[in-house]
Write the structure tokens for this entry.
Amino acid sequence: MLFNSFPFLLAFLPAALILHGLAARFRPDWRLPVLLALSFVFYGWWDVRFVPLLAGSIGLNWFVALLFLRSGAGWLIPLAIGLNLAVLALFKYLNFFADLANLVPGLTLPHADLVLPLGISFFTFHHVMYLVDLRAGRAPPYDLLRYALYIAFFPQVLAGPLVRWREIMHQFDEAPYARPDAAERFGRGILLLCVGLSKKVFLGDPLGALVNPVFQAAAAGQVVTMAEAWQAAFGFTFQIYFDFSGYTDMALGIALMLGIVLPQNFDVPYRAASLQDFWRRWHMTLSRFLRDYLYIPLGGNRHGLALQFGALFATMTLGGLWHGAGLTFVAWGAAHGAGLGAGLLWRRAGLPMPAILGWALTFVFVVLTWVLFRATSFEAAIAIYKGLFGLAPTGGGLRWRTLALAAAAAMLGPSAWVAVQRVQPSRLAAILCGLLFVVLLLKIGDDANYDFIYFQF
């Protein structure tokens, strides 16, 4: 059930809001069980076979947390984290490791055709965050209901944002519709939903129609012209932004209508003047996860420049592997690790960097590395790079107007969250939002709808 589908927008979401509202109004003690039931229905809509996996992971991790608190046995937490990562590796990386092993002459391991459960990377990381903080004494115990809702809350279970326990747990016990600004928050949630859906429908999907044929041609071994390569590289740069930030805006809007404020995930990343700044603006919740649960435990900046560089490189390489079970994702992450390391050395040397030059270098680097992220193989990526660097026919027909419009929408103005907060409640705003929603429904019904890109991770 996609956020950008009729079943979700016209059936599940209205039913969820009505049931949640009735529970909050007449039986407040039912509010959290209703949200949890809705979350499992939403998750099971994709493939009911994986509902036991989600429920089992919640029950096991909660039970381990309970045992740890009662026994004080520190080994329980690393064991649970290891089991979580093992399950993730089984579904997501088994074939990847088999392919690596098959590089050894004479070794032929078969592929296991396992279906990747949606959201497994995200709910695994939620378990890890809570367990690590529990062991460190930062997280308190929670009952099974609240812990289950933290993991399975349907607006964010499939593709984030990655929410820390301390950002959401206290909100479960609030009375969201008793607030004086409840109606305003609900309205801003609807507006965020429409803005995010607009990003996906009006910008992300049309860009995908320009990008996908070029990368498919590259994967098929065809020659990619210079114009096609630049169209694909720039197009995917903006497509993934509108697709993923649009999903996040919708998730934040839906959660806000349910009385929950989720953390922002994007802050106009293509205005970043350095690669470090880019990762403070792009997929912000993942960046904070990588920093606090990987980079700092690996040493961070506390043990000298060499170890800091190594921690940066290892963190980003593993972050690339988290995005996808392929060497192109590893290379993408490693490239960003090396780029962040180069920026670190530049700052340590005290060398100047004009803001406009820093922005240009950062943007070009990000565009070039997105090719690795999108390409299905190194051969396909090389075909694109040949076009980008003039080692292929020039070609023609670059859709520069579409790309210019996308660039303006991505780089100018505030983030969606900030823009929505600035809108003053009024009848005109409500009417315009309603008309936009109707137009979006007509557009969804008229066109083929793409899955959100991050659902594959």
The chain has a mean pLDDT of 93.
